[in-house]
Each structure stands twice: as C-alpha cells, then as structure tokens.
Recover the amino acids of this structure.
C-alpha cells in the first residue's frame, strides 16, 4: 500500500537570500572617504564629532550623515547617498 | 469536506508546498524548519489553509503590506498560513489581517519595536461587535491565558512577523530580556458596562465598527488599591504607580496603557469623571520636578541630564495615556502596561484599523 506524504504550506517569505561576499576591508584609510552616520541616538553626535576630529588629525576625508530617527530604517535616498559618496562607513549605534 | 476536494483537485493555493518525508512528524517538521515561536504549531496542511481562507472575502493574493523587518510582500494567504500555525479558527482571520495591517503602518514603527533592545511588542486590543461574535475574553483573566481567540490572534501576528518578515530573536529582534507577551498579547475591551466610550469610539470609529488597536507595550504591572473610594485618591494612586513606567526618573519617553477593572471604574463613574477628566487629572499629577528626576537624585546615578531639564516635566506626552476597561468582575485591581520609550511621531504611536470581512 502506498501512502501519500503530508504536504504543508510554507509560512515564510520563501526568500532565499543571495549570498553576497563582503567588500574586502581596506588595507589603509589613506585616500578613502569615511562616512560617519549618526542614527539620532542620544549622544551619538558627540561620539562621532570626537571620532571625526581624530580621523581629520590623520589627514583623512570625513563626511557626516544623520538618520531622521533610529526607530526606522534609513531612507533609501540616504543609503544611496552614503553608498555613492563614501568608501567606508562608521555608524554610532548605542546610546 | 470541500477543502479536501479543493486541496486534491483545485488550484486555489498560491504558495510553496513542502512535502514531508514519510517518517517525518508534522509538528516536529515545523520546529525543524524554524516556523514556531517555541510552542508547537498546527501543521498548515492545504486543507486547513483553504478552510482558513474561508474566513475572509479578501483574495488570497491581495497584498496586505510589506512585512518588517525584511520588508517583503505579505499576501492574505501567507497570513492565513500563519493563522493556521497559531491555532486560529477561520472566523478570526479578519482580525489577524487587521492586526497585521496595523503593524505594517509606518506610525506603529514595527521594525523599531522588533529591533529594539527594550521589552516592547505589539499589544492587540479588540473593540466592537466582533468581540462577542467570535467569543473573545474581555472578562476574568482578560490579559491571561485560556481563551482561544485572545491567545491565537496575538500569536498569529507574532508568527507573521517571524515567518514572513523574518524577525527572529537574536536576528533583528534584539531584546535584552523580552517579555512573555511576545508569544501573544491580545484581549478585548469590555464595552458593555464601561463608564466610558470605548477605545475605538474615542479614536474616531463608529460604535458599531469592529476594530483592532495596537500598542507597543511591555509586561503587566499591577495597581492594587482597595481603599480609595474617591476619584482623586484613586487617580493619585494610579499616578504614583505610573511614575515607574520605564524608570521613575524617565520623562516623555513612553506612553502607558491603563487597563481599568470595574471596581475601580465605578469610582470614576459614581463621581461623574469622564475618561478625558481622568487623563487630565493623571497628566496634572505626573508633573515631575527637577529635584526628583535629575541625575544623582535619591542616590541614583541614572536620571535626566541637568541641561535637559526644565523646571517641571510631564511624565508622559499629553496624549500619551491609553485607557481601556476590562471586566474582571470583582477586585480593586487595575493594570499598567508600559510603552516603548520612543513614543510619538518619531517613534511609535498607537494605531487602530477597522476589521474588514
């Protein structure tokens, strides 16, 4: 006797995320543009200002960005701007 | 029976079907594929999903919205599959769809509520005739276990976020401790003997509308006051407890959901206090002074930085308290459910949607 195997409906989004390898870490920051992203968490700007000072002392090119709120993902426009203008990004995540 | 025939001969289902091996146990197979919240789920067979879809007139391929955190399209049939997993009956599906729709609204900020290190998660409050129609609990133990609709509607919403949205603990869900309401937290307001207009009416819906409201909330904190017989005293008692939301020195961060039981509600009813009056009184009682909330006060390092403090600060934003009535019959208890400390347009605000059939 043959029995039919049970079939279930997939409750997930059925997405198979593409496996993308990371961009290799730069050997040096010389000549690169470093984006500093403030996500609007308390005191993130203070931390990033300090960091910007240290990076600029080393003669590096720094650009500052700010998310309108940390409670939502960054607007697409901001993501694209950072991707276009920077080689490396540092984000201030915590309070 | 029609579902059995449809499953065998129909072409009614849109999504991927997973065939189990002969010796696989269906419930274990769901665990193995990561589809559960830790509790067993009902295996979503084609028959059960087709039966679930009978609960709505909405087309299975209608997109309800984008499910965070992955922001993928979430169709009615996907919600139905997760409603089966959660243990829902077909007549609950319109409520689950409404809850999912509400969670996807930008104003609720579901992605942030999920990704936060804080405790919060959607608390689902149901209003209107649908409550009686499907037999939800707005009475004894309304916030607790024991009622299928309460239990499974809240759970279905969580499973949609997990399975369709991809939000899992340790992944985008970063809660330090979480709270048990992340399995399910859903109840109905007891409208019949409430002294006040319902939450839905207060939020602009008709009395005959059935609605779902989401509040980004934490666990339940008791307010036990068995002595107050005057509204002023009871309001002060509530206010004293409400100070502890998030932490006693935190101001203008969270909203609060106050669930008031009949023996407390009758004190306000007898004194002729409207819901608005109670909210105004609570707001007035929750003006905290610099000395109370500044860093270091009370020997506690945590607190507001002095440069950020005005002389007096409100604990909550003016529209930050949400009051509902639940009918736990006797007992002079009410409950506070603290909100995510990102209340307001830049964070989360409570959202209400009407239930469509």
């Amino acid at each position: 006797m043959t029995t039919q195997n049970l079939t279930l409906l997939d409750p997930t989004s059925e997405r198979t995320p593409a496996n993308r390898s990371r961009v290799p870490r730069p050997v040096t920051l010389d000549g690169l543009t470093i984006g500093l992203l403030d996500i609007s968490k308390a005191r993130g700007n203070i931390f990033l200002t300090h960091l910007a000072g240290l990076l600029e002392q080393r003669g590096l090119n720094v650009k500052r960005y700010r998310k309108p709120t940390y409670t939502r993902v960054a607007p697409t426009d901001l993501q694209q701007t950072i991707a276009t203008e920077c080689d490396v990004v540092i984000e201030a995540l915590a309070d | 029976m029609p579902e059995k025939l449809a499953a065998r001969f129909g072409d009614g289902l849109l999504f991927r079907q997973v065939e189990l091996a002969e010796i696989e146990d269906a419930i274990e197979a769901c665990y193995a594929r990561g589809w559960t919240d830790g509790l067993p789920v009902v295996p979503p067979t084609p028959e059960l999903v087709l039966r679930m879809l009978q609960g709505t007139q909405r087309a299975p391929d209608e997109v309800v919205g984008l499910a965070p955190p992955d922001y993928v399209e979430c169709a009615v049939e996907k919600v139905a599959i997760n409603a089966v997993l959660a243990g829902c009956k077909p007549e609950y599906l319109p409520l689950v769809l409404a809850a999912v729709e509400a969670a996807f609204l930008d104003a609720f900020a579901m992605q942030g509520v999920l990704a936060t290190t804080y405790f919060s998660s959607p608390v689902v409050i149901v209003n209107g005739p649908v409550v009686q129609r499907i037999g939800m609990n707005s009475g004894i133990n309304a916030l607790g276990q024991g009622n299928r609709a309460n239990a499974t509607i809240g759970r279905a919403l969580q499973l949609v976020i997990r399975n369709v949205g991809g939000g899992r603990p340790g992944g985008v869900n970063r809660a330090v401790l979480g709270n048990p309401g992340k399995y399910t937290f859903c109840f109905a307001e007891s409208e019949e003997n409430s002294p006040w207009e319902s939450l839905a009416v207060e939020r602009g819906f008709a009395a005959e509308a059935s609605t779902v409201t989401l509040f980004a909330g934490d666990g339940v904190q008791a307010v036990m006051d068995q002595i107050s017989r005057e509204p002023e005293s009871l309001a002060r008692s509530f206010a004293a407890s409400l100070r502890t939301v998030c932490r006693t020195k935190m101001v203008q961060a969270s909203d609060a959901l106050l669930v008031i039981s009949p023996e407390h509600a009758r004190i306000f009813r007898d004194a002729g206090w409207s819901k608005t009056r109670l909210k105004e009184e609570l707001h007035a009682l929750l003006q905290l002074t610099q000395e109370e909330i500044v860093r270091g006060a009370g020997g506690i390092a945590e607190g507001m930085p002095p440069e950020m403090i005005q002389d007096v600060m409100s604990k909550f934003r003016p529209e930050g308290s949400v009051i509902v009535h639940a009918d736990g019959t006797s007992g002079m208890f009410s409950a506070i459910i603290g909100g995510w400390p990102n209340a307001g347009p830049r964070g989360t605000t409570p959202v209400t949607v009407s239930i469509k059939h």
